[in-house]
Give the backbone structure.
Amino acid sequence: MDKNLTYGVFVMPKINYELKQQIIKEHFNGTGSTTLAKKYKVSNSVILRWINRIKNENFGMVTSENRHRIEYSIEFKIKVLSYKNSHNCTLSELCNKFKIHSESTIYFWQRQFDELGIIGLSRKRGNPKMNKNKVTEQPKLSKDDELKQLKEENLMLRIQNEYLKKLKALDQKQTKKK
């Protein structure tokens, strides 16, 4: 049995800026993207995306130094999504036109907009900031009050249980008649 089988899985290492430059340079010197993908163990589609960004004069989007977290305004997100819907563009075309780093960013915006509307586009990712005003706990009940509350809760649960039993019996009775 061959131990070198990959079963279609393509593991991509992190690519530094110098290696990206090397791959792009080799591509422009005539080496095919498929050959480069095998040589450097990088997905062929990733290499083609880099090449397209260079051809569209978005070379800054290829560099790893430019991968800082960018905050896009709601207006910008709406503009991109409306352009996508009116022009039937692919995600990669939108990335090139609006200089957005990743196609998954636009996909995420579209999904959020479809599920939650404009509110979905305004939601910030990550954990919300802590509230400065701590919520105070409810005052502790005295033993007598707590006992009284528990007895009331117990009574309500017994009533609910009896109701469900009678409902079940009634349902069984009706199904027997049919």
Notes: The chain has a mean pLDDT of 78. The chain is about 60% helix and 0% strand.
